Amino acid sequence: MDAYGNKICSMTLKGGGWTKRHDNVKFTIQKSLRQAAVEHTCEVYNLVRRHIPQRAHDELMLKKQRDRQGIVPDFSISGMDGGTLLGDVKTMIRGEAHLEKKHQNVPFGPVNARAKRVNHEYQKHAKEIDAKYNNTMDGDGIVGPVQRAVQSFGRTRGFVVGAYGECSQDLLKLVDDTAAAQGVKDWRRMGCKNAVEAAGVLVEATRTNISLAALRSHARLLLDRIDLYMNAGATAALQRRSAARAKWEDLRWTACPRRGPIACVSGRPHRDHA
What is the dihedral of CA 38, 19, 151, 181, to 10 degrees? Predict the structure, then answer.
């Protein structure tokens, strides 16, 4: 383990720590959109599902619910830049990206570089789905239906929060636009002189909320990883006890309707040997 825990936070371990941190940032962004009354969808399901042939649905049904969709952006936001845009939330841990020479002395260099890769990743994923289910080969000049659906929304934005709470340019622009929309709506209730003043207050508050959500989630991730690393044996024993208790409770309540209330008294349940 390194001095600041960056390595252990970068490791793929159980517990869902990355997902929890990602979702905390995502829901903080969603809260600001909801307060500003900006039309949006969080977790955009069925975006490309209709472009996948019916014959592939049996195969997809064997996968997890999210994987069945093919592509699930974190946000679809309407009314921004004259249309509807897609955005995906990404979080970063301090690592090699922060140490690259091209990012030195460049404000928000790592997060903006990560944000630029989001659109490429979406296009690549769409091509792979088309090649697998729609028989479109990469390099033949044919754009498949899934890729066309993704391209119809323009460039997919990368809402990236870095290791120090810094935000990518796409996320900062979203915060500015959201604050402007809420400022027009709420500047009188906020006690401001005009919508511009209200927007300035909201920009600062929203940026702070997003950064704090990311930093707090990273701290929780680090603590959970240390606990998992230092108390791996104790955690496993606790899980075994919890599983045994759940099995006992299941047996207890299964026996209750078959043997009457006597089967549900304290102690081990009566087993039916009939």
Answer: 20
Residue 56 φ then ψ, to 5°: -90, -5
Cα dist from 233 to 2, 189, 227, 229, 238, whole Å: 22, 55, 11, 9, 9
| Count of domains for the chain | 1
Residue-number span of the structural domain to which 170 is assigned: 6-230
Angle, vertex CA 144, rays to CA 141 and CA 145, nearest 5: 150
The secondary structure of residue 43, as a DSSP letter, is S
Please tell me the number of Cα atoms within 13 Å of 54 on its side-chain side. 0
Instruction: Report the C-alpha gap between 141 and 167 in whole angstroms.
Output: 36
Query: 73: which 2 tokens?
Result: 């952006």
Burial class (CB in 10 A: 0-12, 13-18, 19+), 13: middle
In a domain, 149, yes or no: yes
Asked if 171 and 91 count as a contact pair (C-beta separation under 8 A), the reply is no
Instruction: Judge residue 139's burial from the number of C-beta atoms within 10 Å of its C-beta, 0-12 exposed, 13-18 middle, 19 or more buried.
Output: exposed
What was the pLDDT predicted at 168?
96
Q: Is residue 271 part of a domain?
A: no
Tell me, yes or no, whether 259 lies in a domain: no
Query: Does the residue 246 lie in any domain?
Result: no
Taking only the tens place, the pLDDT of each residue in 147-192 is: 999 999 999 999 999 988 999 999 999 999 999 999 999 999 999 9
> Token pair of 48, please?
């490309």
Helix (H, G, I), strand (E, B) or coil at 44: coil
